Amino acid sequence: MANFFAMGGYAAFVWPAYVASVLVLGTAIVLSLRAYGKARRTLRQLEQEMGETGEKDS
Amino acid sequence: MRITVLANPKRFLDLSRVLVPWFLGATVVLLGGGLYWALFNTSPDYQQGESVKIMFVHVPAAWMGIFVYAVMAGASLTGLVFRHPLADVAAKSAAPLGAAFTALALLTGSLWGRPMWGTYWQWGDARLVSELILLFIYLGYIALWNAIDDPVRAAKAAGILSLVGAADIPIIHFSVDWWNTLHQPASIIRPGGPTIDASFLWPLLMMILGYQMLFFWLWLVRMQTEILDRRGRALMMAKGA
Amino acid sequence: MTAFNALLLRDIKLAFRAGGGATLAMTFFALVATLVPFGVGSDINLLGQIAGGVLWVSAALAALLSLDRLFQADYEDGSLDVLTLSPMSLEAAAAAKIAAHWVTTGLPLVLLSPVLGLLLNLPAPGYVPLALSLAVGTPALSGVGAIGAALTIAIRRGGLILALIVMPLITPALIFGAGAVTDALGGMDRGAFLFLAAFSVAAVALSPFAAAAAVRLNLAG
C-alpha cells in the first residue's frame, strides 16, 4: 500500500498530475451541468409566464 | 441520418437527450476501467520508473486539445461555408473544453518532465511549447467570442479566427521543432520516450477513448445549454415587445 | 493613379502624421532596445548574444501597436463603408492597407535596426541577417496583424484582444527571424531565411482574403 502511494519515489509528481486531472475535468463537468440546469429552469419559467399571460389575454 | 436533420434545434435537442446518457455511461466505464488499469495494473517503466504513469493522464489531454480544435475548425468551416445553423453553437460549446484539455496537458506534461529535466518547464520540449501556444490560441478565440456583442457577428469572426489558426498551427509546430534543433535538451529521455511498452498501450487507449467520450458528453450538454439559452433570450425579447 | 495606389499613398501619409502609427512604432522599437540593458545588465557579450532576439521581439510588439488603428480609424469616420463602394475589391483594399502598414512600420524598423544593433553590441556578422530577416519577416507581421485588426474592429479596447489573437499566430516569423540572426552569429545555416520567406509569402498572399472577410462581416451589421 505504502509502496503504491510512494509511486517509486515519484509521488510528488504522479499524484498532483492525477489530482489536477480530476479537478480540472470535474470542474468542467460541474460547470457544464449547472449551466444546463439553469438554462432549463429559466426557460421553463419563461414558458410558464408566457403561458399565463396568454391565458389572461384570452 | 443527414446532417441537415440536425439543423432543426428541436430535433437536435431530442437527439442529444437520447445520446447524452450513452456518452455519460461510456465515459464512466472507460475512465473508470482505464484509471484502474493504469494505476494498479501497469509496471514501472525501466527508464522513467513510476512517473510514466503520468502518461495516462497527459497523452489523452494533449490529444483532446488538438482533436477539439479540429472539431472547432470543422464546425466553423461548416458554419461559414454551408451556413449550418447549429455549427457556431457547436464551435462555441467546444472551445472551453479544448482549452481545459490543453491546460491540463501543460500541467501534467510539466509534472511529467520535472523528474527528467530538473525543471518544471523545458523550452526544449517542442510539444509542450506548441501546446502552450495552442492554449493562447484557444484563449484568444474564446475572448473574441465574448467580446463581440452580436452573436451572429461573433460566430463569424470567431470562425475566421479558428480557420486562420488551423492553417497556422502546423506551421507553428514546425517552427518550434526547428527552433529546438539548435539546442538539444540536456536529457534525451523525453516524456513519451522513444518506445512505449506494449503493456501500456491498452490502458492508454482506454483513457484516450474515455477522454473522448467525456468530451462528447459535455459537448452535447453545452450545446443543449446554448440552444436553451438562445430560446430563453428570444422569449425575453418577445415579452418585452 | 490606380485605386490601390491611391489608398496606399493615403494610408502612408496618414500614418506619418502626428497621431499616426509610424513614429509611435519607431519610438517604441528604440525604447525597448534601450530598456533591455537596464533590465539584463550591461555585459557586452550577453547583450550581443540576445540582440537579435530582443530586436525581433520589439519589432513584433511595435508592429502590434500600430495595428490597432489599421481599420479602426476608417471604420469610425465611415471611410470603410466608402471603400466598399470603390471599384477595387475589398481584398485589394486590405492588401493596400497591409502594404501601407508595412511601409510605415516594418520598413522603418528595418532601417533603424543596424543602429539599435550597435546599441546592443550585436556582433558584426549579425547586422545584415538582422536587417534582412526584418525586411523579409515584417510583411508577415503586417499581414497576420491585419487579420486580427479586422476581426477586432468594433470591440471596445480591442487592442488587448488584438494582441492576444495575433501574437501566437506570428511566432513562426519571430522564431525564424531571430533564428536567422542566431544562426549567422554561430556560422550555421539551418534554412531560417527560406522558412521565413515561405511564411511571409504565404501570409502576405492569404491575409488580404481573411482580412477582407472580417471587414465585410463587421460592416454588414
What's the helix and strand layout?
The complex is a heterotrimer of chains A (58), B (241) and C (221).
Chain A: H1 2-6, H2 11-57
Chain B: H1 9-40, H2 55-82, H3 87-117, H4 126-147, H5 151-180, H6 198-240
Helix pairs in contact in B: 1-6, 2-3, 2-5, 2-6, 3-4, 3-6, 4-5
Chain C: H1 3-16, H2 21-40, H3 44-67, H4 69-77, H5 79-85, H6 90-119, H7 127-151, H8 158-169, H9 171-186, H10 192-220
Helix pairs in contact in C: 1-6, 2-3, 2-6, 3-6, 3-7, 3-8, 3-9, 6-7, 6-10, 7-8, 7-9, 7-10, 9-10
Verbal overview:
The complex is a heterotrimer of chains A (58), B (241) and C (221). With 58 residues, chain A is an all-alpha fold. Chain A has helices spanning 2-6, 11-57. With 241 residues, chain B is mostly helical. Chain B has helices at 9-40, 55-82, 87-117, 126-147, 151-180, 198-240. The radius of gyration of chain B is 20 Å and the shape is globular. Helices cover 84% and strands 0% of the residues of chain C. Chain C contains ten helices and no strands. The longest helix of chain C is centred in the middle third of the chain and has 30 residues, at 90-119. The chains are: A mainly alpha (58), B mainly alpha (241), C mainly alpha (221). Chains in contact: A-B, B-C. At the A-B interface, helix 2 of A face helix 2, helix 3 and helix 6 of B.
**What gyration radius of chain A follows from the Cα positions, in whole Å?**
24 Å
Shape of chain B: globular
**H/E series of chain A:** HH
Oligomer: heterotrimer
Radius of gyration of chain B: 20 Å
- Poorly predicted sequence stretches spanning 5 or more consecutive residues of chain B: none
Summary, kept brief:
Chain A is an all-alpha fold and 58 residues long. Chain A contains two helices and no strands.
Features of the shown structure:
heterotrimer; A: 58 residues; mainly alpha; 0% strand; C: 221 residues; 10 helices
